[in-house]
Amino acid sequence: MESFLSLFDPNQDDGFDEEPELNGNSSGGGSSSSDYETDANSNECALSLVGGIPTERGNLIFDFEQGMLPPEPQIGNVEYKLKLVNPSKQRFEQLVTQMKWRLREGNGEAIYEIGVSDAGYLQGLSDKDMNASLTTLKQMAHHLGASTSVLRRKTISARRVVAEVLVRKIPDDQHNIEVRVAVLGGADAGKSTLLGVLTQDELDNGHGRARLNMFRHMHEIQSGRTSCISHETLGFDALGNVVNYKYNEMMTAEEISDRSSKLVTFMDLAGHRRYMRTTVQALSGYSPHYAMLVVSAGSGCNDTTEEHLAIVRALDMPFFILVTKTDITSPDATVQELCNLLTTIGCRKVPFVVTNTDEAISAGSNQVSENIVPIFCVSNVTGTGLNLVTKFLYVLSPGISNAEKDRLEQESCEFQVDEIFRVSDVGPVVGGLLVQGVLTENMPMKIGPLPNGSFHPVTVNTIHRNKAPCRVVRAGQSASLSFSLDQDLPTLRSGMVLLGDTGNSPDEPCGTYFFQAKVSVLFHATAIYVGFQTTVHIGSIRQTAVIRGIMGGERLGTNDCASVMFEFVGHPEYVRPGMRILFREGTSKGIGVVTQVFPVNKTIVTK
Q1: What is the pTM of this model?
Q2: pLDDT (tens digit per residue) in 540-599
Q3: How many CB atoms lie within 10 A of CB 219?
Q4: Is the domain of 445 the same as that of 327?
Q5: To the nearest 5 percent, what fractions of the chain are helix, strand and coil?
């Protein structure tokens, strides 16, 4: 062991300049002498009121009621336009190119603020100029095969109006835009009931009737507690209308996907502490874009709520909160408790209680860019506040940058197996997340690692996404894969990976027992020493590991950081440098990044 530990490494402008306004500030009655699109920085016509919800960076949330927006971001999917009236052909092409860039930044979605200067002042337009600007924006979107929908339109002063428009273009290689949301919360918070109401469009009777369609096992129906991962979908068409099972009488999951330009996939996770490992595995393995923390107005923030919140923060995942059961008791005390929890030194988030449609749109448009945590108060029995939640979800963007998406798609294929099913006449089916690369039907792959660390060649037969067949899966998308019936498959388990078949490449993939990681201990009651056993989560991997070495010291306490050597107890896993690690045992928690791996045997040849 000493010789092995000696290998341990202890050190391990968007490009579009706006044309200046040619005749000063725009006049209040119609077009200025220039018929070109302008994006003025002048603020003489803007309202003097400056306010909003501060963040750590000093920015403001996008709220028209505050009189001013933050300065236009140079990156991202938000664009300010003061006016879009009769642009020349050359200028129109420039605007279309700019829109294309904003759509790529938002993974198919962009927000346009019309009547707003680059500095964020709400200067507004006359009704004539606003209608002309919206027409131009629609023509720009049509040029790219995109659609537009006005999210809100406000009169600010002297008959001058501003508007916020959502531009959406489904990528050419996708049927719709998908946002994955993990649903967390205590066992009695009403998570399954909430999803039943949203996806079935039928209010609850106060006794849990809406949740019955969410359960997958008889013991869940009998106990009322979710014990495994359940996937549910909520769709939106191009105009923002909800598409769910009540859309028509014969609606199926496949039809919801076909009719929706945007699809929100909910992962209903277990709330009881008994199933905490399954919950953490789903958060780590499926890499949801957002977490939805559900809290009961009656019970408030319990230990499970704080535990889930700590895990979400450790994974650096944006989240929002829903306070349920407001028909039984007032949510005020629970909301205040949440605000106190979010503003503590260890969290430092800005709670934002959403009370109207404008605030819901503002929160959805800035969920990633700002440090806010939207809070909704809802009732599954009366339906109070649910319309604000659906409006928020309609605007919510996947949040991954286009540059990162392109980079991941250029990498070799890696599919993490999280669930395994056996379907009659189909054979074994694996479900999980494509971490990087592009996966197609009939693609040769290798699955593993096997007990000896090697990988077994397989061929992907069919692919399903959102309960509907498809031909291709791209990085960041979840899917289910089946294999040819005539293939000789090894024993499958959760935590395996499917890798692109590189033929006889010298860099054959191989499993590992030992790996090094730079870790930070979030909490431990006493101290961690060599020999400490803990459950390690790396992507879809969930296995007990033992700490075999701590570089630079003999122990680790709360808030301590160090390079640590781990050894898997059961079997080898596929781990690579750069992967995020989360380990927990009881109340002890820590996070880190893998820095070095030690393959079982680099000379293994798959038989």
Answers
A1: 0.75
A2: 999 999 999 999 888 999 999 999 999 999 999 999 999 999 999 888 999 999 999 999
A3: 9
A4: no
A5: 20, 35, 45
